[in-house]
Design brief:
This is UBX domain-containing protein. The chain is an alpha+beta fold and 210 residues long. Helices cover 46% and strands 24% of the residues. It is rod-shaped, with a radius of gyration of 50 Å.
Length: 210
């Protein structure tokens, strides 16, 4: 700097360069100026620096707003992905529940069909006035309840098993156990008569789950 312009006043301020703070000479006021010119240049330097600071603040605010928007969008995408995954899981669970309910309903319908077929196939029950050639069969269900029915001794074991099935205890799921001797009647020849199996003049049988 030429000697005739000394002394000089350097206006130094902080600026941001590539995101980092740095000190920089913002304005130079030479010492060979009058007081009015000096004050004018000083005010000008203050205005320039103030404008510079406002620009930096605005730029920083805009950068922060952009960063916030990016972070918001990323969070939004993550939340949307989580919600979609949750909905997919709920749809899968609902579909599985529907499948299981449909299967259960189909199984129940099939059981009811078999129960009705067993009921329709039962022979006529002997009249109470008939006392010979008749056996009284009592059936204890898995819950402890007892039902009874009369059969002719010439009726087949299958008729007794059908009676049990007509009460909802299908032979595919339940065993029918005689009291004495203890036998699983479902394993015997279903065409045998109740007389041949000695299930007369009365008998108690128990229904058990397989």
């Amino acid at each position: 700097m030429p000697m005739d312009k000394l002394p000089a006043i350097l206006i130094i301020g902080k600026t941001r360069v590539f995101g980092r703070s740095a000190c920089e000479v913002l304005f130079v006021i030479h010492g060979n100026v009058g007081i009015d010119d000096f004050l004018s240049r000083l005010m000008e330097s203050v205005e320039v620096y103030s404008t510079h600071i406002r620009d930096e603040i605005q730029e920083e605010n805009e950068r922060a707003a952009r960063d916030q928007d990016i972070a918001y969008q990323e969070t939004l995408q993550i939340d949307m992905a989580k919600e979609e995954a949750k909905q997919q899981k709920e749809r899968a669970l609902a579909a599985e529940r529907h499948r299981l309910e449909s299967e259960k309903a189909e199984q129940e319908a099939q059981k009811e069909k078999l129960r009705k077929m067993a009921e329709d196939s039962l022979p006529k029950e002997p009249d109470s006035s008939i006392t010979t050639g008749v056996t009284d069969i009592r059936v204890r269900d898995p819950n402890g309840g007892i039902v009874h029915r009369k059969f002719f001794v010439t009726d087949q074991l299958q008729d007794l098993l059908n009676f049990v099935a007509s009460k909802g205890y299908l032979i595919s799921e339940y065993k029918v156990i005689s009291s004495w001797p203890r036998r699983d009647l479902t394993t015997l020849d279903s065409k045998s008569t109740l007389e041949q199996l000695k299930l007369y003049p009365q008998e108690m049988v128990t229904v058990e789950e397989r």
